[in-house]
Amino acid sequence: MYTLFHHPFCPLSRFVRLALGEHGLDLRLVEERPWERRTAFLSLNPAGTTPVLIADATPAIPGAGIIAEYLDETHGAAMGDRRLLPSSMDDRIEVRRLMAWFNEKFFEEASGPLVTERIYKRFMSEEDGGGPPSMDVIRAATANVRYHLAYIGWLARTRNYLAGDLITYADLAAAAHLSAIDYLGDVPWSEDEAAKAWYQRVKSRPSFRPLLSEWLAGVPASRTYVDLDF
Amino acid sequence: MYTLFHHPFCPLSRFVRLALGEHGLDLRLVEERPWERRTAFLSLNPAGTTPVLIADATPAIPGAGIIAEYLDETHGAAMGDRRLLPSSMDDRIEVRRLMAWFNEKFFEEASGPLVTERIYKRFMSEEDGGGPPSMDVIRAATANVRYHLAYIGWLARTRNYLAGDLITYADLAAAAHLSAIDYLGDVPWSEDEAAKAWYQRVKSRPSFRPLLSEWLAGVPASRTYVDLDF
């Protein structure tokens, strides 16, 4: 049994939930508000960020990338051809490149600022930086979503899944970040049919269902959030 | 033979040089100015960032973390007890945690802004963001160096090397970032004797020598940069 310290709209935590789901692993969720900098949480992860995975008989595992490597090393080989970090070196490089692209670059440029401004700030105290969202930050992040969506569309037109023929961590990372901001209505799906068709396929996987059942009091989900055929 | 697209003062590129050196691998260096966004470089790494490693018979390998995983998968087992990403799961988690701490958090909060403001901006055109350094950015980054140095000191007092008994990627990452900003005189060594003693040990390794021979026209190195017994 695994325990995940997460926030329901943290895109990196969503990636880990998808990764555990695809591995068929059960999960207990503990909601963390990282901006509160809880002492017990900081002792699990001195960086103070979600997600943190607790597994039996290992120290706490902090961060989406490190958790992905851990899951691959403990459960990857048993996945056979469905391994999310495939065995061939070329595939490993490409999957890791795209996983970092979404978990680092997309998070920094788009999903991180959007979730912080539109969701986290509602719950933060004034000292923690709470308050009304910065429209400048939202505008810049929304513009960045468009070029990332075009990149996803380009990948989806040249390949079956983002990193090749089969679904990998690359798809889970991209879809996790998109799902968090799709809730907010921040993904202009009509701009890229190939990206939309790829997302529909990933979204219809059983591992995705728990994410779609996350709703936030006071912030209604966008029209496209739950609909599998949006 | 490996080829590394790097900048001599890019802290992440320095980490990769140390990692290759510790593995005993030869390296050809190609200096890249990532802010110029050279088309041929973007085709190697669409993210446009250094470092990028070119190895025989694989696609280009972008980013310090992905290169570290690649080197471990291709050369790690042959290192035996000196493996830089040790075999036990607990050690792998801790080494990856600290490697990410320095290559992501320290880079974002301290070494990245300092190198950009004090070095890269000298070479950038005005359109690329060149010009005089922002003293506000430098002040904030310098303050961050101090808390990171205290964290390194705390680790060095509790352990022989940062992640445990032996040298690992964690030490190489921390030392690589420190070396880039030590050139600029931005490390207050006198504030932490344990951190300083640990750095002296890492700095005296043969893999470190090529870094210390990097000098920048017009920017003199600090008093402590080359001195092994500073």
Automatic annotation (TrEMBL), chains A, B:
Q: Which residues form the signal peptide?
A: none
Transmembrane region positions? none
One GO term in the molecular function aspect is: glutathione transferase activity
Which is an annotated Pfam family here? GST_N_3
* Assembly and binders: Homodimer.
Q: Name one GO biological process term.
A: glutathione metabolic process
Q: Which residues form the GST N-terminal domain?
A: 1-79
Specify the protein name. Glutathione S-transferase
GST C-terminal domain: which residues?
88-228
- Which InterPro entries does its entry note? Glutathione-S-Trfase_C-like, Glutathione-S-Trfase_C_sf, Glutathione_S-Trfase, Glutathione_S-Trfase_N, GST_C, Thioredoxin-like_sf
Source organism's superkingdom?
A: Bacteria
CDD domains per UniProt? GST_C_family, GST_N_family
- Keyword line: Transferase
